[in-house]
Amino acid sequence: MAKKNKDARVQVILECTEHKESGMPGTSRYITMKNKKNTPERLELKKYNPILKKMTVHREIK
Questions:
Q1: Number of domains in the chain
Q2: How do residues 7-61 score in pLDDT, each as one tens digit?
Q3: In CATH, what number is assigned to the domain containing residue 29?
Q4: Residue 2: inside a domain, yes or no?
Q5: What is the reported pLDDT for 23?
Q6: What distance in Å separates the CA atoms of residue 54 and residue 62, rounded to the nearest whole number?
Q7: Does some domain include residue 57?
Q8: How far apart are CA 53 and CA 28, in angstroms?
Q9: Chain centre distance of CA 62
């Protein structure tokens, strides 16, 4: 049997871009997985921000 290599999938943190700019206290962050080989650039997804109570763009942070 072939050995599975799990090094390609990494855990990333997504942080709200609008919340950062608004200056309100707190943060909206999500944790997800991505494949480094298929998506080498930073991930950007629309997710729900419970503090702003709307869908916003969340970008991957280091």
A1: 1
A2: 789 999 999 999 878 878 888 999 999 999 999 999 999 999 999 999 999 999 9
A3: 2.20.28.120
A4: no
A5: 79
A6: 24
A7: yes
A8: 11
A9: 10
